[in-house]
Amino acid sequence: MDPVAPTLSAVPGPSRRAIGVDLGGTNARVAIVDDRGQVSRLTRVRTDSRPTVVDLILDLVAEVRESGTTDLGVGVPGQVSGDGQRVMSAGFLNLAGTDLAGKLAERTGLRVVLDNDGRAALTAELAVGAASGARSCAMLTIGTGVGGAIADRGEMLTGRGNAGQLGHLTIDPRGPVCRCGRRGCLEVFASGTSLHRMACEAGLPTPVDAFALLDSAAAGESAARAVVARWAASLRAGVDIITALVDPELVLFGGGLGEAAARAVGLAPPGSSWYSTRTAPAALGDTAGVVGAALIALSA
Amino acid sequence: MDPVAPTLSAVPGPSRRAIGVDLGGTNARVAIVDDRGQVSRLTRVRTDSRPTVVDLILDLVAEVRESGTTDLGVGVPGQVSGDGQRVMSAGFLNLAGTDLAGKLAERTGLRVVLDNDGRAALTAELAVGAASGARSCAMLTIGTGVGGAIADRGEMLTGRGNAGQLGHLTIDPRGPVCRCGRRGCLEVFASGTSLHRMACEAGLPTPVDAFALLDSAAAGESAARAVVARWAASLRAGVDIITALVDPELVLFGGGLGEAAARAVGLAPPGSSWYSTRTAPAALGDTAGVVGAALIALSA
Fold it and tell me: I want to staple A75 with a disulfide (CB 3.0 to 4.6 A). Which of A117, A142, A192, B72 is the partner?
């Protein structure tokens, strides 16, 4: 395991602490998190480093567990049951239908709650991050794909368990076919994969460094300007639609390309003054998932 | 005033009753509604029949008020403040900035709560209508324009006060300019106004009878088929986007064209099996607004 620089904090009074786990496609993270969102013992491991996801999580928990910890929250890249116990679908992790919370509870003696990883990240941003104090917020997670979550009146939208699929807003019904089967979803224009493809097509250097690309565009380099303008326009179209539907106080950009995307979207004005809202980068970086998962466990 | 056929109900036990008012662009409605959603003394009057909206509502309240009624709910076609006291914007009613609840409370001695008319209608459908038993539901109101509301876990989304502008989902970024300033909103393809325009352009008889149009299309009449296919496709595109974002158990179609729209959308399959959801007509017709306004007042 790679220990990641922990944010050790002096806790002024007694606080409740939980273990947060964030299951990603490539890396899984674990940390101890207190009820103020302070992180300690943050550790990362490759997702494929253990034969099963259950083994992986058990090892992560063993790594950080301390006396008195009774709660474990796990953020899953997919859909979980309404009671936070079962994984309903989780693409690449091959966990669909698993009573993951039950298995982990049996093996650890901890109280276990699962939630979607996007909702976990937004929970953390609302509690102690860039959306602190907001009651309504949408978060677009810009990475290999585009995900997200929506909060209203401080609560996460769930729908049937799959609310917040913000990558699958239709941006252009004549656009390329998306992996979901529809055409022109936000994901096919705004993801890191798409940004890479657009840069390739424009003859720009790859792999893409999004900040270097933004700087080249700002300096007037025409190929970079064209790619950034298309990226910005698709991000803005997504923000406009989200604003029409859920009218959030702000829209956060998280994920590996979150900061760059927040800068890019500022280059494209809202399609109408009716639907302007504040946009900002997420604040917690790659700790949002573990913090949110632990906070959800503490409040369950 | 035109008395409308009332739904008089034998109430089996003691129940709480409130006055509900639904302010529309053309007509305003008032009724006594009990906490089970049973309606009595439903009355309708033209919105322009009194010099001010306050006078109009006072007359409506006087018409139906009975001893023991302490609560008044008013559905407003626009945005209200988070505390349900002030009108923030209400287009044609010229009420922006008004402490409408305060004025009405002072003049009637009733407790007064305002809410958006789309949220009031969905509140009623969730409580005693077509979404009864559902926890998550979106409602598209298809009339002169297209409005709506969204509920998740039984609660209405509010955002900054303006959530649920479902008429302003982008369906086609190259489409006609909408009154909101953006291009290709759902409203410019799916409203009654748009259906009328499409029928005119296709040389079909106007004013449009939506059910006759659907019947002609079903019988294979080519101009009708083309118009209905375009209408259905735009409604379906809206449902797909709503489903990606909020993943509701069902999407209801209300408003004057609600039943026809629910039939039309059934003709266009979801853009992807990922985002299929149930669609249905709303059940309460033009009483949804008064019922919802009263229920909101009773639960305030």
Answer: A117
Question: What is the homologous superfamily of the domain B2-121+287-299 according to CATH?
Answer: ATPase, nucleotide binding domain (3.30.420.40)
Best probe of the A interface among B152, B174, B235, B243, by most A CBs < 10 A, is B152
Q: State residue B30 phi and psi, 5-degree precision.
A: -140, 150
DSSP 8-state code for residue A176: P
- Is residue B65's pLDDT more than 60? yes
Report the range of poorest mean pLDDT among A83-92, B98-107, B109-118: A83-92
Residue of A nearest to B148 (CA): A245
Per-residue model confidence as pLDDT tens digits over B77-97? 888 888 899 998 766 677 888
Q: Of the candidates B157, B249, B272, which has its C-beta nearest A180's C-beta?
A: B272
Domain A134-282 homologous superfamily, CATH:
ATPase, nucleotide binding domain (3.30.420.40)
For residue A275, the chain B residues in CB contact (below 8 A) are 165, 168, 180, 182
Farthest-apart Cα atoms in chain B, separation = 59
Q: Are A12 and A19 in contact (CB under 8 A)?
A: no
What is the SS3 string spanning chain B? CEECCCCCCCCCCCCCEEEEEEECCCEEEEEEEECCCCEEEEEEEEHHHCCCHHHHHHHHHHHHCCCCCCEEEEEECCEECCCCCCEEECHHHCCCCCCHHHHHHHHHCCEEEEEEHHHHHHHHHHHHCCCCCCCCEEEEEECCCEEEEEEECCEECCCCCCCCCHHHCECCCCCCECCCCCECEHHHHHCHHHHHHHHHHCCCCCCCCHHHHHHHHHCCCHHHHHHHHHHHHHHHHHHHHHHHHHCCCEEEEECCCHHHHHHHHCCCCCCCHHHCCEEEECCCHHHHHHHHHHHHHHHC
SS3 for A38? coil
Using CA atoms, how far apart are residues A58 and A292, in angstroms rounded to an integer?
19
Q: Where in chain A is the domain with CATH 3.30.420.40?
A: 2-121+287-299, 134-282
Nearest-by-Cβ selection for A181 from B152, B241, B272: B272
For B121-153, what is each residue's pLDDT tens digit? 999 999 999 999 999 999 999 988 899 999 999
Encoded amino acid at A104, one letter: L
Determine whether the interchain pair A271/B182 forms a contact, defined as Cβ–Cβ distance below 8 Å: yes
Report residue A113 as tokens.
Answer: 């709650």
pTM: 0.89
Cα-based torsion angle of the residue sequence A70, A76, A80, A84 in order, rounded to the nearest 10 degrees: 10
